[in-house]
C-alpha cells in the first residue's frame, strides 16, 4: 500500500505522528485513532525513570482517556518496522487486523503491519 492509497483519516494520523516527532525533536512520533474516531498523539519518552516508545505512549494516552479499542495506529520513525513491544501494546487494546502504519520521517509509508 502506498501513502496515496491511505484514506483521509489514516493520512491524518500519519501527519499527527510526524508533527509530534518534529515539534518535540524526538526519535519517534505516533498517533492512534480509537473506535469513536478520537486521536491521541505522543512522542518518545526518555526520562531517566521512564522510557516509552511513541506507540506505547500514545496507547497509554488512549487508555487513560477511556478508549476501549483502537481502529488504527501510525508511527513515524527511522526504523523499518514497529517493535514487538509496540505491537503487543496495540494488540492489548486493538482487535485483530488493526493496521499499524510505519512511515519514515518524510511521512513516506514504509510498511503496513496488522495486529
What does this structure look like?
The protein has 115 residues and is of the alpha+beta class. The strands form 2 sheets. A 5-stranded mixed β-sheet has the order 2-1-5-6-7, with helices on both faces. The protein has a two-stranded antiparallel sheet with strand order 3-4. Helix 2 runs parallel beside helix 3. The model has no long low-confidence stretch (mean pLDDT 92).
Topology order in helix (H) and strand (E) letters = HEEEEHEHEE
Write down the overall geometry.
Answer: globular
Rounded Rg: 12 Å
Q: Strand count, sense and closure of the main sheet?
A: 5 strands, mixed
Helix run count = 3
What order do the strands of the largest sheet run in, or round the barrel if closed?
A: 2-1-5-6-7
Outline:
The chain has 115 residues and is an alpha+beta fold.
Top keywords for this entry?
115 residues, single chain, alpha+beta, 3 helices
Topology:
Elements: H1 8-24, E1 29-34, E2 39-43, E3 45-47, E4 50-52, H2 54-64, E5 70-76, H3 84-93, E6 99-103, E7 109-114
Parallel strand pairs: 5-6
Antiparallel strand pairs: 1-2, 1-5, 3-4, 6-7
Helix pairs in contact: 2-3
